[in-house]
Amino acid sequence: MKRILSGIQPTGSLNIGTYLGSVKNFVKLQSQMPDYEFFIFIADLHAITVYKDKQELRGKIRELAALYVACGLDPTRVNLFIQSEVPAHSQMAYLLQCNSYIGELERMTQYKDKSRKQETGVTVGLFTYPTLMAADILLYDPEFVPVGKDQKQHLELARDIAIRVNNKYNDIFTVPKPLIAEIGAKINSLNDPTAKMSKSDNNEKSRINLLDPENTIKKKIRSAVTDSLGTVKYNPEERPGVSNLMTIYHVITNISFEDIEKKYEGMGYKEFKEDLGEIVYQELKPIQERFNDLINSKELDTILDNGRERANQVAFKKVMKFNDRIGLGRKRK
Ligand code: TYM
Q1: What is the DSSP code string of 150-203?
Q2: Domain total in the chain
Q3: Are residues 101 and 129 in the same domain?
Q4: Whole domain around residue 91: which residue ranges?
Q5: Measured between alpha carbons, how far apart are the two ends of the chain, in Å?
Q6: Rounded to an integer, what distance in angstroms lies between the CA atom of residue 42 and that of residue 10?
Q7: 107: pLDDT confidence band, cut at 50, 70 and 90?
Q8: pTM recorded for the entire structure
Q9: What is the CB < 6 Å shell around ligand 1?
Q10: Catalytic residue IDs
Q11: Mean pLDDT in the chain?
């Protein structure tokens, strides 16, 4: 069976950027692509490239698992699992590090940005992160990897590594293709609409978290940065603020930019923002309700146990096969 795989880091708070750019897409794909087996995971090993408090990390892992399901991932369609519960990810990452070059990792823009911001204590893990991500992917031979725009470069590296290893060790990996939504693949910050909406931004006003209460959601949208023109028009280059809000509006309602423009013709931002606040709230309300039922449930553990079983089965086999191709250990019978 063909496969689809993706993951999210359990850092910060899951926000509508990650939701609209990735989770909502997974939910759509699980019914649009019935012939594919899905592997979706919580990338907790990725979260520790920067030190995390133990209790907080545990909480975020479970929160993300519950949010995935609350957002509509169907556990009968998707193998949902926690990355660190499948040891083959770390094993495969090492094998891939031995097939990657320092130069290509140094070119990763996310590493350059993050290491620049963090003057001291940049860990080796932050540097080798893209090889762990390549391992996450290549272990499962997925045909497609749905991600937002910011992960495109990491995915290209995973492809390069797969091709290189295939040439050296006789076609062991499927070369994955990115699946990047045309619209919504980059939702920007509410207070700086030229930058990505990010889980790790220190400014809470920059994003709407999936678990924000109604008045917070509406307040954040009311105070989102726009411009002084006061007309609802889509033009991401010249008017990034209002265009970003229109993108959020469009991805949730499916109403085209043209129709949104028509609807708010002759009105200022006030009505548009009031409506958008309500639209976002209505989208998140059922997610929050389902989340509250799930977070302390046994059901969630059963889902994660089942996901772990299946993921381990596939991943262990792959890492053993690669060990064998390299010549590690004893010859397999
Ligand atoms: P992460 O946790 O930063 O983001 C998870 C997914 O959400 C997308 N995304 C966004 N899309 C649109 N607008 C935004 N503002 C926005 N912010 C985040 C990301 O592109 C991503 O698809 N390294 C990955 C996690 C990972 C992974 C993998 C993904 C680990 N292994 C293997 C795919 C395959 C990460 O940190 O994503």
Answers
A1: GGHHHHHHHHHHHHHHHHHHTS-S---EEE--SSSSSPBPSS-TTSB--TT-S-
A2: 2
A3: yes
A4: 2-180+297-326
A5: 26
A6: 6
A7: very high
A8: 0.96
A9: 6-9, 17-18, 21-22, 43, 46, 133, 136-137, 145, 147-148, 150-151, 185-187, 196-197
A10: 114, 196, 199
A11: 96
